[in-house]
């Protein structure tokens, strides 16, 4: 159980850290999301989003090895991944790259829910 929990935190960290590379350029953002970045304002918003992904991913990575951070990191990670899936569905976005992101977040989010749930159960029984 301990290794599964750590694995799910590491996996969620990787998924949240991957888009952080978008902070470096509009070209990378375009590749990540399959969208054009037509203005400096949109570039700013998407690059800021990349920074926030780095923060969440870093927190999840740290929590994989520091169990006292797992509850807070788990909540942040779940909000990060599952809110995108919900917003993707609600907005009716029709973009293959964004669909891929939503599917990855759905699969990893499902595994992470299991790991987070086990963490809460383990914490409650300790």
From TrEMBL:
It comes from the Bacteria. Keywords: Membrane, Nucleotidyltransferase, Transferase, Transmembrane, Transmembrane helix. GO terms for molecular function: nucleotidyltransferase activity. It comes from SAR86 cluster bacterium. This is Phosphopantetheine adenylyltransferase. The chain crosses the membrane at residues 44-63, 75-93, 99-121.
């Amino acid at each position: 159980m301990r290794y599964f929990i750590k694995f799910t935190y590491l996996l969620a960290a990787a998924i949240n850290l991957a888009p952080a590379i978008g902070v470096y350029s509009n070209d990378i953002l375009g590749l990540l999301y399959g969208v054009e970045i037509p203005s400096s304002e949109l570039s700013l918003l998407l690059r800021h989003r990349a920074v926030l992904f780095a923060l969440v991913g870093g927190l999840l990575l740290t929590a994989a090895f520091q169990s006292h951070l797992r509850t807070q990191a788990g909540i942040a990670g779940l909000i990060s991944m599952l809110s995108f899936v919900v917003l993707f569905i609600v907005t009716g976005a029709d973009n293959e790259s964004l669909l891929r992101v939503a599917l990855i977040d759905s699969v990893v989010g499902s595994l992470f829910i299991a790991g987070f749930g086990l963490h809460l159960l383990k914490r409650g029984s300790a």
